[in-house]
């Protein structure tokens, strides 16, 4: 008989109640007395376990009582309702067999473990309640992103991971090479001879797929990227990883307002999708990780996001009756304390801040008519601060070239990016969502290392 | 008025016919006489263009006639049916305005270009018919993969790209480093001092997420990875890229037969999804790229895949009335010519070949009782040969340790992989699908460089 999945039993109980079923899964807990015993089984399909009752009438009753935590078993029995009990039903076993045992030194015995400890057993931690919930939500969120964009006709573009250009200019990069480190080839002039490297030039790991996504938006109109990106920054914080996933939509025939509409729709869609498809997980997070989680997510879903300019934000902050660690003045970069004040204290909902000073933003952002600010937008959300950052892109060739010069960037490196402005370079816009930051927001988990299956951070690339 | 997308006009024509609509897009072709003219507009939402008719009654009639190919325009007009004409409808323009011009040296003028040439303008080629179709199919195929697995409750796992282990052992790897190539640090013993590198150890780009996926399958039961993988092989063929995407499901409480069932269901699902969602593109490929495409895809959808053992395959090949370039004997690796003979000439449908000699397969594949073969499976399809490769994994600790020894692999490097066998390491299986190879199969495109937006191959990492 085909095994029934525990998720199916929870979701379609009436189909199985009082029927004989077979399940298979791993033992989470087990206790027994002389006459009967209970095993909590998790089969991986669902956050919750199912309780299995076994009685001494089973021929291998004594052995079953000795099955260790984490052992894999197959259970045949009847699903019976248990009104009034903690769990709505249980399986009265007629047969239990061992599929694979587990050594007694299993590191995930039923007791509290710190997240720090669980990071050292990243190959086993998805079997714990908290991480089981985290990584299922991560999977559902990824799917929600694809679903949102695909249903709107967006084309998914896989932009390159290995990049031969340093156009992206967003911080330190990892070099990719097959050169022999014992014998780095040199040119006659005494420089490293990257001609001899695998790609015949210096190559690095990408920090963003945006520039390539722009090329595709000017062909397909609406596109998105979703893939790994990298930062070789030596910062050991709870919010930085060296390898993380990023999602970047890019839309043509669109301006900054269209961009904000899209980000707002997307965020609401994702939250709704996860709340609908992982209600048990969200309930768990709300109970054990962050008691404000549900309030916060509901607030986002039910709000019209506020839109203010950077200049307005600075005015609000200057008038605020609040001591900030970092001083506020027109031209300053907003710090998390400022962002949280605006979204949590002033507007109490998500806030788009737009039109930042050009000097604190990237070269590709569209210059406003005031010649001082650019058409950028950051989405600030209560509890976190910045969640999304984006802009309308500079589509005017002369303005873009001037910006490159101002920022001492080499025009030749941008030949194809400039080409896009030469041939039907219509107005377009886009933004980036750090995928892990979104997962942290959706789960209340506060360390990025705990939302990445096998995290990479300075001095750490285990597994 | 909100712009209507051309896809929507084709799919919901009755909604717009005889109505005033506004579209925006790029000029693909333009021709005009003294009294009227025609513009083919593509807005990126759809494979096909829409024809716009403009007449001299428009105040900027003369300018419109001079708009260059690739210019972005906005068109207001009435959608009228054109029974008997090549296209089912056209827009009679009441207003056409220029959004963004295009220089006259636009490299994608309407004429035949070789795929080789188009690779040099990878930032513009998605605007050509062929590549517009290829990369839309790529996007839809990616979505079909997510949809297939998510609807079956599989958990999507992002396995790491940067790997600190060389356990994967599948060929040459790219090194990832932040060391200064002008000054590689050395230990006192004269070795490279990877302690000083970013991660405190030697790191490379992943060649497969399988081992990590196994860890997750033993928590979630059914999981899949889908992300970039890398090979630093210096092979310049039409079928090899240095960076490509791979999809790897892994299922627990499952054996080789379950694995084959899954692969067969998945492949049929993907082909059906793409044929339903990109009929115009598939028709185009069938007409201009590969006249056997539709026959082949329909054959796959409508066949029950054949299953034979490697030993049976060798017997068939030995008896074959066919001159092969590579000799066939028990123990040989099957070459593409052998694979194609079996799937195209003998069975005329997809064929799973199972139970290969252990010596030509990886250490993690489950040893069969004959002690000579392992529970591996390759899926061979007409027109291509191998499309999917997988196996049941060795779950028995003692057998796995023996295999590691036999293959001179260091057990300590596999501590966590062995742990998985120690704690509820139930039978499990999985396979890998090279995403680009699937796209080549779905489109008939014969060079892998033409199904990757910005391909990376030896000596080439442009854009």
Report on this structure.
Chain A has 463 residues and is α+β, with helices and mostly antiparallel strands. Chain A has 2 domains: 6-100, Nucleic acid-binding proteins (OB fold (Dihydrolipoamide Acetyltransferase, E2P), Beta Barrel); 125-170 and 207-450, Bira Bifunctional Protein, Domain 2 (BirA Bifunctional Protein, domain 2). Helices cover 31% and strands 24% of the residues of chain A. Chain A contains 14 helices and 16 strands. The first copy, chain A, has helices at 6-11, 13-16, 61-66, 115-119, 129-151, 210-220, 256-277, 279-288, 293-302, 310-319, 336-346, 397-406, 415-422, 435-443, and strands at 20-32, 36-42, 50-55, 72-81, 89-100, 155-156, 162-163, 175-177, 203-205, 222-230, 243-252, 306-309, 351-357, 373-381, 385-392, 428-434. An 8-stranded mixed beta sheet of chain A has the order 6-10-11-16-15-14-13-12. The first copy, chain A, is globular and about 85 Å long. Chain A starts with 5 loop residues before the first helix and ends in a 20-residue tail after the last helix. Chains A and B meet through β1, α5, β6, β7 and β8 of A and β1, α5, β6, β7 and β8 of B.
């Amino acid at each position: 008989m085909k095994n029934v999945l525990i998720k199916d039993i929870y979701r379609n109980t009436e189909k199985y109640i009082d029927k004989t079923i077979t399940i298979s899964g791993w033992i989470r807990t087990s206790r027994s007395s002389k006459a009967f015993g209970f095993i909590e089984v998790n089969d991986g399909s669902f956050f919750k376990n199912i309780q299995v009752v076994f009685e001494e009438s089973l021929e291998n009753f004594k052995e079953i009582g000795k099955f260790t935590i984490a052992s894999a078993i197959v259970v045949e029995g009847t699903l019976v309702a248990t009104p009034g009990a903690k769990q709505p039903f249980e399986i009265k076993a007629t047969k239990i067999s061992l599929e694979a045992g587990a050594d007694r030194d299993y590191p995930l015995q039923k007791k509290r473990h710190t997240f720090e400890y669980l990071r050292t057993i990243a190959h086993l931690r998805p079997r714990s309640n908290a991480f089981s919930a985290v990584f299922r939500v991560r999977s559902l969120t990824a799917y929600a992103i694809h679903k949102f964009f695909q249903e709107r006709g967006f084309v998914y573009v896989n932009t390159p991971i290995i990049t031969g250009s340093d156009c992206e200019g967003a911080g330190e990069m990892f070099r990719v090479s097959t050169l022999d480190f014992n014998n780095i080839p040199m040119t006659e002039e005494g420089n490293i001879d990257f001609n001899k490297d695998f790609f015949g030039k210096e190559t690095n790991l990408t920090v963003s797929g945006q520039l390539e996504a722009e090329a595709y938006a000017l062909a397909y109109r609406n596109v998105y990227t979703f893939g790994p990106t990298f930062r070789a920054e030596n910062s050991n914080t709870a919010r930085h990883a060296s390898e993380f996933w990023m999602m970047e939509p890019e839309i043509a025939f669109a301006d900054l307002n269209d961009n904000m509409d899209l980000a707002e729709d997307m965020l609401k869609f994702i939250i709704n999708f996860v709340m609908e498809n992982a209600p048990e997980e969200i309930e768990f997070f709300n109970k054990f990780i962050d008691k404000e989680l549900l309030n916060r997510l509901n607030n986002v879903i039910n709000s019209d996001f506020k839109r203010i300019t950077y200049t307005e934000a600075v005015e609000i902050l200057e008038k605020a009756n609040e001591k900030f660690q970092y001083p506020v003045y027109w031209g300053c970069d907003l710090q998390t304390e400022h962002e949280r004040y605006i979204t949590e204290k002033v507007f109490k909902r998500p806030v788009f801040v737009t039109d930042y000073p050009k000097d604190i933003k990237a070269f590709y952002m569209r210059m406003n008519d005031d010649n001082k600010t650019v058409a950028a937008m950051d989405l600030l959300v209560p509890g976190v601060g910045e969640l999304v950052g984006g802009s309308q892109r500079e589509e005017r060739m002369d303005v873009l070239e001037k910006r490159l010069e101002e920022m001492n960037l080499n025009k030749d490196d941008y030949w194809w990016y400039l080409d896009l402005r030469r041939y039907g370079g219509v107005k377009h816009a886009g933004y980036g969502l750090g995928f892990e930051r979104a997962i942290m927001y959706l789960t209340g988990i506060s360390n990025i290392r705990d939302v990445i299956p096998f995290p990479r951070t300075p001095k750490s690339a285990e597994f």
